[in-house]
Each structure stands twice: as C-alpha cells, then as structure tokens.
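dude i think i finally got it to work??
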Amino acid sequence: MSVNDIYDMRGKAACKICVEGSGVLRAWCPQDKVLEHDAVGVLLMHSGWNSTLESPASGVPMLSWLFFAEQQTNCRYKQTEWGVAMEIGGDSRRGEVAAMTLEAMEGEKGREMRQHAEEWKQKAVRVTLPGGPWDTNLD
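look at this
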C-alpha cells in the first residue's frame, strides 16, 4: 500500500497537502491502515485510548506526548507494563523530540520497544482467532 492508496471512509481520496517532496499531510486517514505500513517505525501520539490499542496491535512502538485526561494512565501502562513506549516531556523542544525519535527508531530502547510491540501484535492476532478468547468470552 502506498500513501496514495489511503482513502477516507467514503472511498474517496482524502484531502492531502504535499510537503515539498518530504511527505504528505492529510486531513484524515485510517490510522489502523497507516500503522500496518512497513514505512511506519514509531507513532508520535498524545496517548488517547484508541491509538494506545491500535499501535501495539499493529506492532508499532510509540512516543507519548501527553496533554490531559486518561493519557497519563495510558502512558504509564505503555511504558512500564507493556514496554512499547517512551514519554516526551510536555515542554520538550525540537532537539529533544528529535533525539527521542532517533532513539525510538535506531537505539537500544527502540529495539526493545519494537520487540515488545511485535509480541503484543502476535497476542492480538491469537486472541482474535476463531475459538479464541474474544470469541468464547462473547458467548
């Protein structure tokens, strides 16, 4: 799948803005489909619950930049319990974000997070198989 293959819910091409040869910025896209793409190495997120579940289910580690509500709790689980995230401080600047992104993409912590994220992806696959916990617990 290429960036141009991502469509909105109505099947029409989503609004896009080309960014001088360095990428594409879209008004909306199906995050779960983007996370499945091989080009995605890490997700920079605010730690809302949907992304907290979608990212490890896709095998993608996370950088969490928190704001409010349940985000602190979600981040704690992602970091300390699941091992799939790093937290960016609320007042971080460009250099700090760049360094953390580099660590998440190429550093030892990033390798550990990718390994844990892949384990969570495999767990998500197993529990959704016919006869798996999601199926039997609904009966």
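The chain is about 45% helix and 10% strand.
im so relieved honestly
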